[in-house]
Design a protein that fits this description.
Helix content is 87%, strand content 0%. It has helices at 2-23, 28-50, 54-68, 71-83, 87-117. The relative contact order is 0.19. Na(+) binds at residues 66, 69. Pfam families: CRCB. Keywords: Cell membrane, Ion channel, Ion transport, Membrane, Metal-binding, Sodium, Transmembrane, Transmembrane helix, Transport.
């Protein structure tokens, strides 16, 4: 059952990611996908632990967030910036993507607690 949930979530996350590629140019598309994936991951982890719902982790954290985020594309884009010696854009892109991603995953878990328990 977990595999099916991961597959369904991955399909949904991949579909959203595909939609972003039509709306935003690279690397903005990758940036938005990764930080949104981090937020979804944090929320899913928080809810799955609080509600004792492992299906939420499989469906949303592994499936949706995994299908939406694309760290391999970010690595490819960073590699291209490195080859072209675009040092400042590379540093900004890496710093903001990882920094905001970590903060949103952490805040997502905190927000899940607030939402689950009520304000």
């Amino acid at each position: 059952m977990n595999l099916l949930l991961v597959l369904i979530g991955g399909f949904l996350g991949g579909a959203v990611r595909s939609g972003f590629t039509h709306l935003l140019p690279s690397p903005y598309c990758t940036f938005v996908s990764n930080i949104l994936g981090s937020l979804i991951f944090g929320l899913a982890v928080g809810f799955s632990q609080l509600a004792n719902a492992p299906f939420a982790y499989s469906l949303f954290a592994l499936g949706v967030a995994g299908g939406l985020s694309t760290w391999s594309t970010m690595a490819n884009e960073l590699g291209e910036m490195l080859k072209q010696r675009h040092w400042w854009p590379l540093c900004k892109y890496l710093f903001w993507t990882v920094g905001i991603g970590v903060v949103l995953a952490w805040r997502g878990a905190m927000w899940a607690d607030i939402i689950y328990r009520g304000i």
